[in-house]
Amino acid sequence: MKFYELSPEKRRDQLVQEGWLTTQDAALLAGTHSLPEVTGARLIENAIGEFPLPLGVARNLLVNGQLHQVPIADEEPSVIAAASNGARLATANGGVRTHVAAHRVVAEVVLTNLTDLVQARQTILAHQTDIQKVIAVAHPSMIQRGGGLDQLTVESLGAQFLKIRLTLDPQQAMGANYANTV
Known about the structure:
Structural class: alpha+beta
Largest sheet: 3 strands, antiparallel
Number of strands: 5
Keywords: Oxidoreductase
Low-confidence stretches: none
Helix content: 25-40%
Number of helices: 8
Strand content: 15-25%
Organism: Lacticaseibacillus paracasei subsp. paracasei Lpp41
Mean pLDDT: 90
Number of domains: 2
Pfam family, one: HMG-CoA_red
Protein name: Hydroxymethylglutaryl-CoA reductase
Family: Belongs to the HMG-CoA reductase family.
Radius of gyration: 27 Å
């Protein structure tokens, strides 16, 4: 019998047998637990109730060489069937390969009313190591996590403006506060 032809209970049982769910997970999914209002009000702002959706699973999607069962909460017919079919086609053709690009943030400082752009640029670049040290002292925890200044560039903007562009590695942080305080 195909997975989609099974009852929800039998689907949970099969996922337990395959090792995708624990018996506790299956019991939780089978239960009729409703979120208490007080819990909902603590989780989000302006809570006015719940909006339950059926929870299904798109089966056997190969991602980076590892097979996944993808949970999907949805009220539309055929969405999970289409996702499962897409997973089947992708898996049959080697699966999905992912790559995460390095996360960087940029801080820019524009200097105005400069009379000698060439000299100002040379001075900034000559003190790049000093600038990196100041950033490291201001944000030691970022440096400890492996982040910091990746790149410093200086660009002329018109006749009297110079832009200093600092490319920063915020590690796991979003980086906005880091960029703003550098």
